[in-house]
Amino acid sequence: MKILFAGAGALGSRFGYMLFKNNEDVTFVDTWGEHVEKIRNKGLKVIIDEVDLGNFYIPIYKPEQISGKYDVIFVATKSMQLRPMLESVKHLFHEDTKIICILNGLGHVETLKDYVKEENILIGVTVWTSGLGGPGILEAHGTGKIELKQVKEINLDRTLSLVERFNDAGLNIRYSENAFQSIWHKAGLNCVLNTYCTLIDCNINQYGSFEKNLELTRAVLNEVTAVGRAEGIDVKQEIIENNIKNCFPLETAGAHYPSLYQDMKNGRLTEIDYLNGEVSRLGKIHNIPTPVCDVITLMIHSKEFINNNK
Ligand code: NAD
Questions:
Q1: What is the residue range of 36's domain?
Q2: How far is the CA of 246 from the centre of ligand 1 (A)?
Q3: What are phi and psi of 275, to 5 degrees?
Q4: Which residues are in the Ketopantoate reductase C-terminal domain (predicted)?
């Protein structure tokens, strides 16, 4: 089974390494020249829980250099890079190529449907985390899990055996009927913490220490919940609020600056259009006003613009 990681950044290289180490046929494709060169010439340096596990020569290409057909494509770019990436690797799909997508945010199924049949889309959400310590260097901590669902549930056998095989490598995937609910719950949390921490310029603990944080949280979540329900998802606002509260203590995620905060600080474009921006877009379709998400999306874009983020 030929597995391609399309986007071999923080998360892609972590999962790719786990499968490669378990003797799977893994290939990386990435547009970042320095990263590609480093992995090709010196191997991917893997540091997990501060332990240097060595360098791993996982085949890696730029999209224009790669050919052949792949059975599974694990997409692992940022949300706004998903469509351009799919365009550049679509020649690598065959009739039954499965795509696994655990990107943060909302709306990815619509994009993926333009490239493969719905029964070949495995959509989900993960709480694994990962980072890069520079080109060619994977630095990660802890463990995690993945919830996954085949969008159109016909011929599930291949998906279930894929899940089993990936679990042999430690990915800890659970096939879940509730994956869409979990995607919305995680997106709801990100619509609150990613954006407010970025706009207020604080970590999660500092956000939680403001006595009226629940007012801010609910201003966003009331919209997320209404729009999610209009989409047919059983969004449970109290679960999202609780998940957010559980992040506040320093011993959980309190000291953490969310990924959108880090993207903003590092001069990169953010995933806002797939969080609050997608809630606004869907709100318009369902005639649900989303003034808070509208303004937050504009504020994040204005900050990207002023910072000249790319
Ligand atoms: P990343 O920026 O580290 O990796 C993305 C990679 O995709 C980069 O190496 C980039 O060069 C590559 N890329 C961009 N355009 C491409 C293209 N056209 N073709 C091929 N490669 C291309 O991002 P990440 O942190 O790995 O995040 C990926 C997704 O996973 C995001 O949606 C993120 O929100 C989500 N996520 C990340 C984490 C985490 O801890 N890193 C945790 C949960 C979810």
A1: 2-176
A2: 26
A3: -115, -110
A4: 181-304
